[in-house]
Amino acid sequence: MFKKLIINVLLWCLFLCGCQNIPPTSSPSELSSSEFEIIENDITHTPFEQPLPTPIDITHTPFEQPLHTSNDITHTPFEQPPPTPNDITHTPFEQPLPTPDPSVHENFNVYPDDLAYVNNETFYIIKDIYDNIDFFGTFQNGDLSVYDYYKKKYTELLSEEKKCINTQTGEAFYLSELEEFRYPRYETEFNLKNYIYFFFDVDGDNRPELCISDVLRRFTYIFDYVTETDEFILWHELPNGSYQLHGTNKIAYNKLGFQHGLDLLDANGNIVETVTFFSVYQRKELYMLFLPEHVNENMETEIIGLTDEMKTQGFLLEGYNNIFAFKVTKEQYYEITKNYFIAIEEANIILEEIAYTYDELFNDLVLKTSAEK
Hints:
Elements: H1 2-20, H2 33-42, H3 85-88, H4 120-131, H5 147-158, E1 164-166, E2 172-173, H6 179-182, E3 195-200, E4 209-214, E5 220-226, E6 231-238, E7 243-245, E8 250-255, E9 259-265, E10 271-281, E11 284-290, E12 293-295, E13 301-303, H7 308-311, E14 315-316, E15 324-327, H8 330-354, H9 358-362
Parallel strand pairs: 1-6
Antiparallel strand pairs: 1-2, 3-4, 4-5, 5-6, 7-8, 8-9, 9-10, 10-11, 10-12, 11-15, 12-13, 14-15
Helix pairs in contact: 4-8
């Protein structure tokens, strides 16, 4: 019996030793919070499968800055791209308006933002004045029977057998000494075949004058041959592409696409009357009209149709004698000036029809005349 007791004690000891090597089990309530979270995050994955990254980590590793968009590729992280010049002073998609040309009026910047529109009475007075202006140009042919004679005479000027006289200065010069010919901007040498020519009665004396321009009409010289003195004179000069021939005794101008006007010339090529108007000023919409200016025989400027009552409706330009600007609506502006823009379109068509190359005018003896409409 004592032997049986010893065996039982040994078996019990072996049993207790074996229980200490079995890992204890735990219920979910006994797990730590971090262990529970790991199990939750892993419940959708198969063994050994890594959990998918969160959306924010799909395109870059932790702490890596997200990639820049195409507009940012030239800038460092968080650096803003510099604004483009067109964005500095106006909103996106807005086109910058042209700046005014100060050669007409220096004080364009004086127009106040609260400048009032003219009343109906003043508007209709201005309209009547503009209605009496003949905006249409007539390209008079003159006496066609003398064309060949005058062509031969003008070859003396072009070949520099004779000089030309500047009536403003009295200076005599050869053709190639003129600025646009002497320092050509777009040509490498003075070559008569580089230019286009117009041949019609510019001054209204029934005889043709010779007009020389570059192919883009960036300048135009008008020459006259005086038979009484056998001299060539520089009758008038169009200094840049803003000006264009507009028929006999008329020059039109279109500056920067918004300033427009018409000059009337006398028989000597001097401006005796001018009218100016513009539709845009700097970066705001503005429609302004000026009354025609007439130069009298004493070379004094007179404003046509200006009354004391109208002065109260207009804006006096500082530094200019009796020159008033009148603000009108867009509708009123185009009602008054519509004939001018129709006349410009017609004149452009005629100029294309009567333009010569050098060979056409002086070698092929082609005759191009206008309908004088």
